[in-house]
């Protein structure tokens, strides 16, 4: 199960995810991340260095959070995403809209 830890910093709200992001967790996690976007004023940095697995539903959740931030004039940066979801994003063209940071 994914867990969220967060801390504020002047330029963005940082969220650290841990565990797996799969069909069982994406709805609640997406909701929590959208709330974090709203709380932060729009800029969110999501550290995924401790996420072991992301399925297709997890990638779609990332798109949902990205859209939520964009509508509010903000942004989401996905940091330290594992290679498999990055390849899936590249294959589907989602790497053109989602912002990934190594």
Would you kindly provide a written description of the structure presented here, covering whatever features stand out?
This protein has helices at residues 26-40, 56-71, 83-92; strands spanning 3-8, 13-21, 43-54, 75-79, 99-101. With 102 residues, it is α/β, with parallel strands linked by helices. Strands 1-2-3-4-5 form a five-stranded mixed beta sheet. The protein has one domain (3-101): STAS domain (Transcription Regulator spoIIAA), CATH 3.30.750.24. The two termini are 23 Å apart. 40% of the residues lie in helices and 34% in strands. The chain is built from three helices and five strands; from the N terminus they run ββαβαβαβ. The radius of gyration is 12 Å and the shape is globular.
For the biggest β-sheet, the strand order reads: 1-2-3-4-5
Q: Which percent bin holds the helix content? A: 40-55%
Counting DSSP H or I runs of 4 or more residues, the number of helices is 3
Mean pLDDT: 89
**Rg, please?**
12 Å
Query: N-to-C SSE series?
Result: EEHEHEHE
Low-confidence parts lasting 5 or more residues at pLDDT below 50? 6-10
Largest sheet: 5 strands, mixed
The CATH topology comes to: Transcription Regulator spoIIAA
- Which geometry do the CA atoms define? globular
By CATH, the architecture is named: 2-Layer Sandwich
Quote the distance from N terminus to C terminus.
23 Å
Identify the CATH class. Answer: Alpha Beta
SS class: alpha/beta
Number of domains: 1
Please name the fourth-level CATH homologous superfamily. STAS domain
Strand content: 25-35%
